[in-house]
Predict the structure.
Amino acid sequence: MVFHKHFLFQVTKSLPSWVRTIGLLTIQWLKIAGVKKIIGIDIQSEKLKQALDLGVNDTIDPSVQDLENEISRITDGLGVDIAMECAGTKITEEQCLLVTKKGGKIGFQGITYSDVLIKQRAFEKSFAVN
């Protein structure tokens, strides 16, 4: 994984999507790179606890919390600067598009072994010019 140091030091809010092995490693790299605010997402409470132990500032369990609303609340309505998709599922790839701010960055680390169709709302939120 390669990070451009100057870019990451400007990042204030980052989101590793799904806190499994790759997500936990991503959290550690984001911390090393100087990211100040990291949000961890998973549907398993033990994985969220591990993320907190590694220094994540906030956690979200999308099985019991509305992901978009929680990200909006945590980021004061802006969305995250960078989202690192670590699970490789259609759902998490779309979620990254929905919670990343305009002009933000998304890193896809997980591998989806099928086509990913982007719903209109996710496309417009990420790419449409207002």
Helices lie at 5-10, 21-32, 45-53, 67-74, 90-99, 120-127. Residues 1-12 have pLDDT under 50 and may be disordered. The chain is about 40% helix and 20% strand.
